[in-house]
Queue: 4 jobs
Job 1
Amino acid sequence: MSVILIFISFLTFISCEKDKNNSSNKIELIPLKTGNTWTYENYRSNTLINTSLIQTGDYININGNKGYKFISGDYPLHETFIVDNDIDGNFVTIGGYSDTDSLFAPSINYKRNASKGDSWNYQEISVSDESGIFKMSLIKVYCTNTDTLIDTRKGTFNCKVYKWSPNLGEDDFLEYISENVGIVKTEHFENNKLFTFMILLDYKINK
């Protein structure tokens, strides 16, 4: 897959478009519509540290790369990731942009119809908070379970579990995702020991 690297300038074409005409009956792992929000409690060593908010922003078109802004916190160089769902309901990372850089390489992050034991390659895109420069690395995502129940303050959710590591197992991340709800829980293990986790506190999904 080719990688398009574009340096943001005043000449870069960015436009906002209307939300896609997604059917309310469509099944997606992470429902994307402008204004959707998810609030999480963040824990370290089972101690509550703070809460965080993820929200779906406008549906935009950057030089032909279309998707929703996926926003979490404020960044000094306005670093923003772009995501979308494909026709099969898979969650796709489109790319990201900042005041200084942009990188687009659409890749399936989470497969909706994955079965236990399935795995696939994913082009992870990350960004440096200091420079706003994006980089890409190839990782493998595993579906480790398809029917894990997670209890939260908003109720109990039946989740698929996705596991990935950015550094060959020194750090492992587990994502618990419930269809048409989104990410319910995330766990971060360091050397096989649970280090941090976040769990759903509240959410709002627009129809």
Note: The two ends are 33 Å apart (CA to CA).
Job 2
Amino acid sequence: MGLAQIIYPRPAESGFQEWAWDHYQHHLAIIQQASVKGFSLNQYRIWPVTQENIQDFLDQHQQMHSEMDEIANVQGANLQDIDFKDKKKVDAWYWLNYVEHQSVASFLGGGI
């Protein structure tokens, strides 16, 4: 699964859920490749994402990023606090999330 699928959700009704699945799969690939490289990352429940569990998603997702950023020496962003009503902030959130995934994937190698 490539990084391109987690930049932004497709502009379709199912776009966010497709993004959420691809994003989750990329986290699993990072965990697996980190293990190959001798690092241990925890797996948190970040999928499925619903309106009812959005705060849990944000909290656990931030924890995953904090852990993966630490092993790759990446200066991470605050991905825990987001105003979903502000499109510019949402777009920035997706971009910052992507950049962290890209940085960690580059550090770990293995084609993730």
Note: DSSP finds three helices and no strands in the chain.
Job 3
Amino acid sequence: MALAKLDITLRNTEAAISRLQVHVAEAKVLAPRFQHFIAEMVMLRLFSIFESSVAELAYKLAAGATYTNGSPPSLNIQANSVNGSRWLFLAHGRNKPKQNLQWTKASYIRESVQHVIPDTEKFVFNIRAHGQTIEEMRRVRNVLAHQTSTAKANYRDVLRQAYGANVQVAPGAFLTSTTRSTTRKIDWYLASTRVILRDAASGS
């Protein structure tokens, strides 16, 4: 049976992110409130793409797929198939099987794969190297998706770091603002997601 290829995941991710970039670019001619709304919807979709893509990369690596540089992963145990990888992540090496795997935070990703893909692997190393960016995106996504007191508090921390003060800025305005930088946050998140996933799959 042919091994699954990480390149296919990356190509699909690239295509999905490119579509989001078109929506964001086309929205620039609209009134600010519509730009804000579209940026928020794009952010939600982008983080969903990140979650599913990083999970797919992990499943493929656990089943023996090579990195995009051609090097094989050094696994603690290899799954017989991509579908079998999830069971390994949930149960292998654990006193009690996990109920769910989490892909929204660098530490969660590491914990999800750690008994199968060791910390020394480039997949884990590179995901952890991008941990701060992943966490920032997660906090922006969470305030849009959940609106809980915790999500709001974490989003305020993002604003405080971005603006250097306690400010009140709606997520859509934050994502599209050029007040602090010529690069809008939504554009930076789109580009960063590409980089993170490429690095996770690179093997270097």
Note: DSSP finds nine helices and no strands in the chain.
Job 4
Amino acid sequence: MKLETLRFTEFQGLRSVLTLLIVAILAGCSSQRSPDCNYPSVISAIERNVNQIVESELSAGITEPTLLASARKVFQLHVEGIRTTSTDADSKKAICTGILIASLNPSGDKSDNQTSLRNLAKNLGVADAVQVNGGELRTEIHFAAVNAPDTNALTVGLSEHNPLVHRLATVARLISPESGLPIGVIPPNLLELPDIATSTTVLLDQVYGAADKSSGCRLVSAGTDVYCMQIAHSAIKKTADGKRLYAVATGRAISSAHVTPGLVEAFIVDDKGGQARVAAKSPRLQMGAWGEAPSNWKLKLLGAKDNWGWTAKDHYQQMGFSIDETIFLGLHEESIHKLAQVPTSYDDTGNCEDKKCERSMSAFKCSVHIEPLPSSAAFYPLLVTVNGRYKGKVINSKTWKMVFDDRKHQYVYPPGWPLDGKLD
């Protein structure tokens, strides 16, 4: 008979080791014998418990039990092809090799899964060590097996750093459609922490998970891009309904070109019955260029009854033209929306090489102001003054009023608005 027991310890950083203790009492086996990775008991133990081998990585930075359970469901894990690659009789040590396979649970189109996994592997810097085949990741994994001199206890642990094992928690979280805590699940004392910086750090940890060990980033995915998230603006306001935390997080694309947008996500935390909760959040909004999101966010009063929101300036320049815009984010019907994106300057004269082109060029400027009238308005109007040239036509300086449309969740341009064409 063969007796097996297993013990696991967690990874500690990138160089830590997850130890698997296998006590194998084999008939006729001497304590002086070198271990062999081909022992059926060793192979079966590793194959049966591969999920536990990476469990600490899946739980890294995730403190919510339901999230951990969800992350575990993202992949089906197993090891195949375990073999001994070298042995050392003097140290009772063997170096073993196997193939760790992380297969996505069946959902959606396999070609879509393959594209997503390839992009994640590339952006996370593990593409050289990982093969993507359909909806699965495959990587060679190495571990050392050492026999204890007196008990024949076989200790098996990773013998070298494996990029996929150490990034598997991140991959699982990014590939999951529900990454981040459900709305409302945050520490109940979030608004009572010592300062805003502490409150926003805790909020980001709960929403995105702890910072990734390798990059120091809180990594999230949007589309085919992976972003490093950080707080761009946060403030606490005392409103008629109590204290509120307003926070905007922005993300820098790990791999980017000029057409790659940055990422923006906004949150409002309030107090409900003495417990902090995420009262509203925005979807993950891709905006900006060169992988960077607008960063100069400011809190503005957008309407009556403490209707606070954010504004930011965005700029893009490429191939002889440049554009500046003012972006408005705000709360409407329990969700945070992009309320407006108003051009504040535009110039395409650098892309003009002849007289014919000059006759249709654009070069204009706009100023944008919030008009707090009427004082009872849920959303105050925006006053936009425009002057310059648009597609060759002179725009006489004039101020236009943009009002908020409840059905569209955004400000709309008034009739006769002169900049009705696409700016490109």
Note: The first helix runs from residue 40 to 48.
